[in-house]
Amino acid sequence: MTVRVRYLSEADSPIPGVEWRRGQAGFVLHGAGGELVVEERMVLSANTTHALLGHGVVDELNRLPIQGRLGTGLQVLVPPAQLEPVRDVLYRADSKTYGAEYEFALELREPASAGNVEYRIRIDNREYQNALSGLQFLFRTAAHEGMAAWLLL
After folding, report:
1. N or C: which end of the chain has fewer CB within 10 A?
2. pLDDT per position as a tens digit, 98-115
3. Range of 65's domain?
């Protein structure tokens, strides 16, 4: 059986059954009435989200005592005590972006619907590096301000 490989980019129209994963991140603040307020600060592209998944960064973050599981599409709370360990993981991830080109297979919701086509994404390392820097800054800011943060992938 021959398998065709098709490379997708975010500019392509959605393909039924193909998982384009995206993410978000931000701060968790205390509102005026004492309630928790979730503030979005970053939208993570499919490129960055698939790079985080493909490079194993999500798995490494999930080994930390954060509140929730990344990669499920739900918001995960990063408590203040875990902001620095999360930043450390992101700093180490940055070193995986140099000197090579990466591509990762996209997950399929219905594997049989793809037929003999494997959908892949080529990682734009520059965009990924910029996003990692933004995430590092977000978590550093939260740590300095005594806030928690959240991440959704």
Report:
1. N
2. 778 899 988 877 665 556
3. 4-8+22-152
